[in-house]
Amino acid sequence: MPSFDITSEVDMVALRNAVEGANRKITGRYDFKGSDARVEQSEKLLTLHGDTEFQLDQMQAILLPEMTGKKIDVRCLKHGDVQKVSGNKVKQELTVRVGIEQEQSKKIVKLIKDSKLKVQASIQGEAVRVTGAKRDLLQECIALVRKEITDYPLQYGNFRD
């Protein structure tokens, strides 16, 4: 039976390169001179440090195009609240979402089942596996999910005949 997997992955090496490129641009900008503005990365967490909320917005305006340039979908970021740190400093945490969360998986499976396509969808950990009798049905399923799920970055891979 032909099958494929729906996943949500982020290239961590490309993400690290994007963060380093953003930090280079931030240190080179005139309006950030003398400030402690920087982006830190620890595994799947990015922390933006700045003097004001406006600086955090400017840093995001630098970071997001860097990520897009490295072929990282910015929809994988979950923006946290802006927190006040010692003195007048602020920070914001951006969580990198890797893998499909359980509620999102259930939403995808329900969408596929409600579509009345002759395919079966099952949750396999942080991925959704879709199997069907014909390759054309699987391609219709991919088109359907692509059209309906727009708020979450999904990849369609491991296509088997």
Automatic annotation (TrEMBL):
Q: Which GO cellular component terms, listed alphabetically, does the Swiss-Prot or TrEMBL entry include?
A: cytosol
Q: Which GO terms describe its molecular function?
A: nucleotide binding
- InterPro entries found in the cross-reference section: UPF0234-like_C (IPR035571), UPF0234_N (IPR035570), YajQ-like_sf (IPR036183), YajQ/Smlt4090-like (IPR007551)
Record keywords, A-Z: Nucleotide-binding
SUPFAM superfamilies, sorted? YajQ-like
Q: Does the keyword Mitochondrion apply?
A: no
Give the matching Pfam families.
YajQ
| Function summary | Nucleotide-binding protein.
Family per record? Belongs to the YajQ family.
The name of this protein is Nucleotide-binding protein HHL15_00470
